[in-house]
Write a structure and sequence with these properties.
The protein is of the alpha/beta class and about 325 residues long. The chain has helices at about 15-20, 35-40, 55-65, 80-95, 140-150, 170-185, 205-220, 240-250, 260-270, 280-285, 295-310, and strands at about 1-5, 25-30, 45-50, 70-75, 105-110, 155-160, 165, 190-195, 200, 205, 230, 235-240, 255. The strands form 4 sheets. The chain has a 7-stranded parallel β-sheet, sandwiched between helices. Strands 7-10 form a two-stranded parallel ribbon. Strands 8-13 form a two-stranded parallel sheet. The protein starts with a strand and ends with a helix. Bound molecules: NADP nicotinamide-adenine-dinucleotide phosphate. NADP nicotinamide-adenine-dinucleotide phosphate binds next to strand 5, strand 7 and helix 6. InterPro entries: NAD(P)-bd_dom_sf, NAD(P)-dependent_oxidoreduct. GO terms for molecular function: aldehyde dehydrogenase (NAD+) activity. Keywords: Signal. This is NAD-dependent epimerase/dehydratase domain-containing protein.
């Protein structure tokens, strides 16, 4: 297959692009940076397309190449519904295939917080078969792009909703927890401030496991049109267990709660109770990495190493 990845240098995008390369596919990946093209994409056999995906000029560049591909995946950093719809429409505008030609698969990367129902029992539980929720204000824009992708007649549209993703540079776990713990570990008190509530349960997934789901879904695109997959481990973890594990590996002595500010931080401490099954049922996908708490020694070291690399750039 020819695969086109928008956001191929990203936390989710790079492992996904590498998974397609390893599986033998021809992979194109966008970046706005010549340096990332030379250092992250080309060395990993990902064909770099250097363009700003949202600019008029960039849209022409990537739209033309993406239109020749069998799979297009939007893994750009989230920027609201308008920009994601713009990206989807630009791809559709460039599609010009003879009648009867196979349709391409289009995968939009969304997030699990659009299914969150909060902490509780089975009434709060969710999976791919459950409707979306209005619980988290921060993500109420997601259906505005998900629905047109899923209902499009021009593509095999699929949505992958990621849980909170861990591994490598830590992504949201770095900004909410690791960065604060690292700073505090160098102080006398060794106590870090972080946004949490005692009851919060986090649904998470390793970035390599999510990459494997992209690959499996993309290869089966023509029979998965209109499906939503949830990329999450089979069990959730209590946020305080994650924080306790960070205390253990960072040399800190504890943590203090700071109140959530704004809708994103409210979403961070919302509980998403989930055990996904559609990825396994339709593609044989099963996450293989250790959970965040169990593998914290590895994930903390990887976070530190990635931070050091970034700081010396
Ligand atoms: N990370 C998570 O835990 C998580 C969980 C669930 C869902 N998601 C969703 O997955 C998607 C990707 O997330 P991510 O964490 O992988 O994102 P990311 O690493 O922050 O960004 C992905 C790529 O988007 C490009 N980009 C960033 N800002 C841009 C801008 N202003 N204009 C054009 N391109 C830009 C960058 O490529 P260049 O700089 O090379 O151009 C970057 O490598 C988002 O929709 C996010 O909401 C993420």
């Amino acid at each position: 297959m020819k695969v086109f990845i928008l956001g191929a240098t990203g936390f989710l995008g790079l492992p996904a692009a590498e998974a397609f390369v390893r599986a033998g596919h021809i992979v194109y990946g966008t970046t706005r940076s010549e340096r990332s093209a030379a250092e992250k994409l080309a060395p990993n056999e990902i064909i770099p397309i250097v363009a700003d995906p949202y600019s008029d000029e960039g849209k022409k560049v990537w739209g033309k190449i993406a239109a020749q591909c069998d799979v297009v995946i939007d893994i750009l950093s989230a920027n609201g519904a308008k920009s994601a719809i713009d990206i989807f429409h630009n791809f559709l505008d460039h599609l010009d295939r003879l009648k009867g030609s196979p349709k391409p698969t289009y995968i939009y990367t969304s997030g699990l917080w659009i299914n969150t129902r909060g902490y509780g029992g089975l009434d709060k539980w969710t999976d791919e078969r459950q409707p979306t929720s209005t619980y988290n204000d921060a993500v109420q824009w997601r259906p505005l792009i998900e629905v047109p992708v899923l209902e499009s007649e021009k593509v095999h549209g699929v949505v992958i909703r990621g849980a909170v993703v861990y591994g490598r540079d830590g992504s949201a776990f770095a900004s909410y927890i690791f960065d604060e713990a690292l700073k505090a570990s160098k102080t006398e008190e060794k106590v870090f401030d972080t946004v949490y509530s005692k009851e919060t349960r986090i649904a998470s997934i390793h970035t390599d496991d999510m990459a494997d789901l992209y690959l499996r879904v993309a290869e089966r695109g023509p029979i998965l049109k209109g499906q939503v997959f949830m990329a999450s481990n089979q069990a959730t973890e209590r946020l305080t267990d994650i924080l306790d594990a960070v205390v253990r590996v960072s040399g800190c002595t504890g943590y203090k709660a700071k109140p959530p500010k704004g809708a994103m931080q409210e979403a961070w401490i919302s509980s998403t109770l989930i055990k996904p099954s559609l990825g396994d049922a339709l593609t044989g996908w099963r996450p293989r990495k250790m959970s965040l708490v169990d593998g914290m020694d590895i994930y903390w070291s990887s976070y530190l190493a990635n931070k050091r690399l970034r700081d010396t750039e």
